[in-house]
Design goal:
Layout: E1 8-17, E2 20-30, E3 35-39, H1 46-53, E4 61-66, H2 71-79, E5 82-85, H3 97-107, H4 112-125, H5 141-152, E6 159-163, H6 171-186, E7 190-195, H7 198-204, E8 207-212, E9 215-220, H8 222-229, E10 233-238, H9 245-248, E11 257-260, E12 265-269, H10 272-281, E13 288-293, H11 296-304
Parallel strand pairs: 3-7, 3-8, 5-6, 6-7
Antiparallel strand pairs: 1-2, 1-4, 8-9, 10-12, 10-13, 11-12
Helix pairs in contact: 3-4, 5-6, 8-11
Bound molecules: adenosine-5'-triphosphate.
Residues 17, 20, 22, 40, 42-48 line the site of adenosine-5'-triphosphate.
């Protein structure tokens, strides 16, 4: 099979809309059992990539193989082996929670009795058993998302595609979704997700690509990316002044790198506390000081000069 044992194999994958190139020649391999992420800001091309992988949008150019098959030729066969959780919930409001699962199962030709059994198990898995006979509309955003995830699992897919699985959810609802996705990961399900939340990428992804402007700018495990593109610690300094720029010059030579953002200065250092002592030693008095570990946000800033969520 092209791409060896990879479940998803892309080479030079391109998506154009007229003159506009949304995905600009990306290479990706996703191995069985991996939790793989596409991390990038809005407009980076993540959804366009997901839609090509989901066989709902044909590639403009390049090679794409899903479970060894070609979406241009084998769309229905591939879709039967995918579970898709789209960015916008598209549950059927006319149906109950349970019926949303059993009806969906019918599209895959799953016998009624099996579908009923599977719906019961999946409702238990996403902790919606008590709402089984409720209509969809009164559910909270987090419940709807969990139901969409359950629906994506109805056909026991090889790969689950999740497009921004927790966008728009409150922190508690996000944690519940993450917890279920962790569980799936432990069961060996291959997860492919897009996100612009670095904490989501760090928590869930074994490996990820950082996308910007339709291209992949870096690839690796969250830890490897942080080690490669950032320092161990970051000192965030906020000065009570109209422009942080005025202070940046006075921090010269401190740390490996300085980023000046509109509202704060980031010092990239090995030892945050030592750097803070040095700042005070220079008779500088920031309004606030925060020492933290480097994150994927820092990786993105380093690679693109921009923050992930502006
Ligand atoms: N059907 C379309 N026609 C024209 N342009 C499109 C279409 N779909 C996406 N685009 C453009 O392609 C670019 C990439 O969009 P895409 O949705 O893939 O980005 P994304 O990284 O998923 O961002 P988001 O988080 O906003 O979905 C954007 O500039 C978008 O406006």
């Amino acid at each position: 099979m092209a791409g060896g044992s990879a479940l998803i194999h892309a080479r030079g994958l391109v998506k154009r809309f007229g003159d506009f190139t949304a995905v600009d020649g990306i290479d990706v391999d996703v191995q069985p059992g991996e939790a793989f992420g596409f991390l990038g800001p809005n407009g980076a091309g993540k959804s366009s990539t997901m839609r090509m992988i989901g066989c709902v949008s044909p590639p403009t150019d390049g090679v794409l193989r899903i479970v060894g098959l070609d979406p241009r030729r084998d769309g229905p066969a591939i879709r039967a082996r995918l579970g898709v959780c789209p960015q916008q919930d598209n549950l059927d409001p006319e149906l109950t929670v349970r019926e949303n699962l059993t009806t969906y199962a019918r599209y895959f030709g799953i016998p009624r009795r099996v579908a009923r059994q599977r719906a019961t198990e999946l409702l238990d898995f996403v902790q919606l058993t008590e709402r089984a006979n409720s209509k969809v509309e009164p559910l909270s955003g987090g419940m709807k998302r969990r139901l969409t995830i359950a629906r994506a699992l109805v056909n026991e897919p090889d790969i689950v595609l999740l497009d921004e699985p927790t966008t728009g959810l409150d922190p508690q609802a996000r944690h519940l979704v993450w917890e279920r996705l962790f569980r799936l990961k432990q069961q060996g399900v291959t997860l492919v997700l897009t996100t612009h939340y670095m904490d989501e990428a760090e928590q869930l992804c074994d490996r990820l690509v950082v996308m910007d402007g339709g291209r992949i700018v870096a690839e690796g495990s969250p830890r490897a990316l942080i080690e490669r593109y950032s320092t161990r610690e970051v000192v965030e300094l906020r000065f009570a002044a109209a422009s942080q720029e005025d202070f940046a010059g006075k921090l010269d030579g401190l740390g490996e790198r300085i980023e000046v953002l509109p509202d704060r200065i980031l010092l990239y250092v090995a030892d945050g506390d030592a750097a803070v002592a040095e700042v005070h030693g220079r008779a500088l008095t920031p309004a606030s000081v925060l020492v933290r570990r480097s994150s994927l946000e820092d990786v993105f800033l380093h690679l693109t000069g921009r923050t992930l969520v502006d």
